[in-house]
Amino acid sequence: MTRPRITLDVFSDFVCPFCYLEVPELDALEERFGDVVAIRWHAFELRPEPEPTLDPDGDYLHDTWERAVYPMAAERGMTLRLPRLQPRSRLAHEASAWARTQEALRPGADGAMRTALFRGFFEESLDLADPEALVREAQTLELDGQALRQALAQGNFRQEVRIDQQTARELGIGGVPGLRFSLDGEHAGVLEGAQPRRQLFLAMERLLDAMR
């Protein structure tokens, strides 16, 4: 099977509502251009330790949600609720990385876990920093919860998350979602923030023109 010549690396955080809001746009991109583009998701902790997390009752979050999140959610046909807590996301990223290793046993595990974590946090205030909450999500998806529990306890995927973070810094990505396009392995541009579908399609069309 020929590998797609275009790669889209998506740097995101599970506590970022705009990353969740970008999912249907990326799904549409994959549906339209899936034979020529490979989409790869990467971890980006917005507030890694020791940086303080946001106050879930603070003015900043409430203002941001009223001004930008709720209107974009309505526009994109999604249901989001301001979470009751603002946990650190490192363990959630580790759980997502673990799920990618389960693809052979459970095809679609990668996307299913990513969706479950986004939806759990932004619709049900799932505590992304609670290992047992992550294990329950895995079990709901018929994944091996005990294997995930052990992987989180041992930090088996911690370095992978750190490498993603370092890669984002090297690319100059400071906000999420960060979308990095590559053509034949060469850097072809970065978009930051939740992009409308038409902008993603335009970026793809430009790369396709460069291939001709």
Task: Please render the helix and strand layout as text.
Layout: E1 6-12, H1 17-33, E2 37-43, H2 59-75, H3 90-100, H4 109-124, H5 131-140, H6 145-154, H7 158-171, E3 178-183, E4 186-192, H8 197-211
Parallel strand pairs: 1-2
Antiparallel strand pairs: 1-3, 3-4
Keywords:
single chain, 212 residues, alpha+beta, Glutaredoxin, four-stranded mixed beta sheet, 4 strands, globular, DSBA-like_thioredoxin_dom
Task: Report what the structure shows.
By secondary structure, this protein is of the alpha+beta class. It has a single domain (6-211), classed as Glutaredoxin (3-Layer(aba) Sandwich). The protein is 52% helix and 13% strand. The protein is built from eight helices and four strands, in the order βαβααααααββα. Strands 2-1-3-4 form a four-stranded mixed beta sheet, with helices on both faces. β3 (178-183) and β4 (186-192) form a beta hairpin. α3 (90-100) packs antiparallel against α4. The longest helix has 17 residues, at 17-33. The radius of gyration is 17 Å and the shape is globular.
